[in-house]
Specification:
Structural class of chain A: alpha+beta
Shape of chain A: globular
Largest sheet of chain B: none
Largest interface: A-B, 34 and 27 residues
Largest sheet of chain A: 6 strands, mixed
Strand content of chain A: 25-35%
Number of strands of chain B: 0
Number of helices of chain A: 9
CATH architecture of chain B: Orthogonal Bundle
Helix content of chain B: over 70%
Distance between the termini of chain A: 33 Å
Distance between the termini of chain B: 35 Å
Radius of gyration of chain B: 23 Å
Oligomer: heterodimer
Number of strands of chain A: 20
Order of helices and strands of chain A: EEEHEEEHHHHEHEHEEHHEEEEEEEEEE
Strand order of the largest sheet of chain A: 6-7-8-3-9-10
Order of helices and strands of chain B: HHHHHHHHHHH
Number of domains of chain B: 1
């Protein structure tokens, strides 16, 4: 990301459907060439926001500007955006080439130019030679590519993708995630992806806006989002997070000392406290499953240790996820361990030592 | 599988039912080709005489002309109105939507004689004279619900994102209708035209009440029934009408199925039907 020129600016964008507030004041700046994701559970307003950027629905209040121009009163057919629909919306009565060339025909381009552009777009999505096929002769993945080519051929400033991979099976989805990302990088066009799949968003995006109930809960890079989730809700939506009760014990020059349930008193440096958080308000800490370690070998050492007991284990091949009950804790914590050579799986009921580091702790109010 | 011996009552019932339904219809062509003027068994011989009579009856020709004009105009107007209503009810939600749709569909179940009498009373009150135009008005009233029923399924099966995609790709609203919506609902439109045409062509009661001096085909046939000698040629005419109606309905159904097939293929995005 060398340039940071804003391409889309959302200023206090609101949308109401009758008494229902779908969007409650969205503020965000999306940069040119960025792969930006709107991530959230269904009904959080992410699709509504995308449709408003596309111009299918006007905002109730606030302003959307694209490339420095306010889009107020500008209809979808005059905006420099193109959409890849969840259902792909391939025109069933047209061939693949006519589908891809549909938008160019509205621009009244000469036939030869349309053909050249369409062939170029089909090559981009790896569908050379498919131009004469009918829409019904395509597989799900191919339809997805046609929908993408149809948007790419218009050379828009922004491509909007509404859950484009949700209808594909897992293997194809993984492949398309990779291809979409590669294509976006090589073209340098801004992509805005709507998804409810946190893994997809983490893999593909430069930045992610996590949305709950019509509001952006956190806007950050995938790594920041995973390592420093702003709220408990974001933390449990992105991956798995173990929560433990905590409260402030004391503050000193070294940092804040917290009393964490089952783990005891720990002193954290001031940098660990997020900006704007009052240490006295700290109520919980979060630790990711991979930040906790089961110390199988008596010689294994960790910064901090606590005695615990294995409740159950789930074997995933490369990883094993353990449920481990910590002393005086009702809910067990989840610990993921890589299945290295020669390591057997701890049986339920066996006592284990759990190791953890101070820097892996995330604080929540 | 020892079902062969016992009489299969369900089969007997089904056959009896079919005979009851279609035997009278079969009698029509039977007597149309019979060379006796009296409609009674036994049949005496084969003739195409009665069809030749039809060729040389001027009153019949003008009745056919009237019916064709009325049916054609009715089909066009009803389908246009039906398309507007079907699109509105499948795309937009508005207050009292269910109630309004219900009232539009009501003529489908209203006794035709009541519609006919009400219409003639109203026309008299308005001081309008009866003509083919009033017949068209009456026929549009009863045909529009059929058109809505056919076109509603065509519009409902249309994925809304197709129209949005077209709009998103820079096409205007009218261009979207012309390039996407119309081609996709076209089979439904043709099916509606054919069915409305058939209904109007066969309709008697409203035509009888509302027609002035220009008789439509069913009204003409009814007037011929008073003359026993004309009966065989009425049978011949009935035979032609029967063939025409069945043909049109089959054609309409074929178009309707084609519409469903086109959109059905789109609905199954990941697995093709082929």
């Amino acid at each position: 990301m060398s340039t940071t020129k804003p391409i889309i600016e959302l200023r206090d964008v609101r949308k109401s459907f009758g008494a229902f507030e779908a969007l409650k004041g969205i503020n965000a700046v999306i940069n040119e060439g960025e792969f930006f994701s709107l991530l959230g559970p269904s009904g959080c307003g992410k699709t509504t926001l995308l449709r408003m950027i596309a111009g299918f629905e006007p905002p109730t209040a606030g302003d959307i500007s694209i490339d420095g121009k306010s889009m107020d009163g500008i209809a979808a057919n005059a905006r420099p955006t193109n959409m890849v629909f969840q259902s792909y919306a391939i025109f069933p009565h047209l061939s693949v080439a006519d589908n891809v060339g549909y938008g160019l025909k509205t621009k009244k381009l000469p036939k030869a130019d349309i053909k050249r552009e369409v062939d170029g777009a089909l090559a981009m999505v790896d569908l050379v030679g498919y131009g004469d096929r009918g829409a019904h002769e395509l597989s799900g993945g191919q339809r997805q590519r046609v929908a993408l080519a149809r948007a790419l051929v218009m050379r828009p400033k922004v491509i909007l993708l509404d859950e484009p991979l949700s209808a594909l099976d897992k293997k194809l989805r993984d492949q398309m995630q990779f291809e979409l990302r590669e294509l976006q990088k090589s073209l340098g066009i801004t992509f805005i992806l709507v998804t409810h799949d946190q893994e997809e968003a983490l893999i593909m995006s430069d930045r992610i806006a996590v949305m709950f109930e019509g509001e952006i809960a956190q806007l950050a890079t995938p790594e920041e989002l995973y390592r420093r989730p702003a709220t408990q809700r974001v933390a449990s939506f992105i991956g798995v997070m173990n929560f433990l009760e905590a409260k402030l014990e004391s503050s000193s020059d070294q940092g804040v000392t917290l009393d964490i349930a089952a783990l005891g008193n720990v002193t954290l440096p001031y940098q660990a406290v997020p900006q704007g958080m009052n240490p006295a308000q700290i109520a919980k800490v979060g630790i990711r499953p991979e930040m906790l370690t089961l110390l199988f070998d008596p010689t294994d050492k960790a910064e901090n240790e606590v005695q615990a007991e294995v409740v159950s284990s789930d074997y995933y091949g490369d990883m094993t996820y353990y449920s481990v009950s910590l002393p005086n804790q009702k809910d067990p914590v989840i610990i993921s361990m890589r299945n290295t050579a020669g390591r057997s799986i701890a049986a339920p009921g066996s006592p284990v030592r759990v190791g953890w580091g101070v820097e892996s702790v995330v604080l929540f109010e | 599988m020892k079902r062969g011996t016992a009489p299969n009552w369900l089969t007997i019932y089904a056959v009896a039912y079919m005979v009851f339904l279609y035997a009278p219809v079969v009698l029509l062509p039977l007597f149309a080709f019979n060379d006796a003027t009296i409609i009674a068994f036994p049949l005496s011989g084969f003739t195409t005489e009665w069809f030749k009579v039809l060729w040389s009856t001027d009153a019949l020709h003008s009745a056919v002309g009237n019916s064709a004009v009325v049916a054609f105009v009715t089909a066009l107007v009803s389908t246009f109105l039906g398309a507007c209503a079907a699109r509105a009810s499948s795309r937009y939600s508005f207050p009292a939507q269910k109630g309004i749709t219900g009232f539009i569909m009501l003529p489908l179940v209203l006794p035709e004689i009541i519609v006919a009498v009400s219409l003639i009373v109203m026309l008299m009150q308005l001081g309008l004279s009866l003509s083919l135009l009033t017949v068209v008005a009456g026929h549009v009233l009863i045909c529009t619900p059929f058109s809505i029923a056919i076109l509603s399924s065509a519009f409902a099966g249309l994925d809304q994102s197709l129209e949005e995609a077209s709009f998103d790709l820079g096409e205007s609203r009218w261009g979207t209708f012309r390039r996407v919506t119309l081609p996709l609902v076209m089979p439904g439109v043709i099916s509606s035209l054919l069915i409305c045409f058939t209904i109007s062509l066969d309709e008697f009661i409203i035509a009888f009440f509302l027609t002035g001096t220009d008789a439509t085909l069913p009204v003409y046939i009814w007037s011929q029934l008073r003359f026993p000698t004309k009966l065989p040629s009425v049978m011949a005419l009935g035979t032609i009408l029967l063939a025409l109606s069945v043909g049109l309905l089959l054609l309409a159904e074929w178009f309707r199925r084609r519409a469903v097939r086109r959109q059905g293929l789109d609905a199954s995005s990941s697995e093709g039907l082929l």
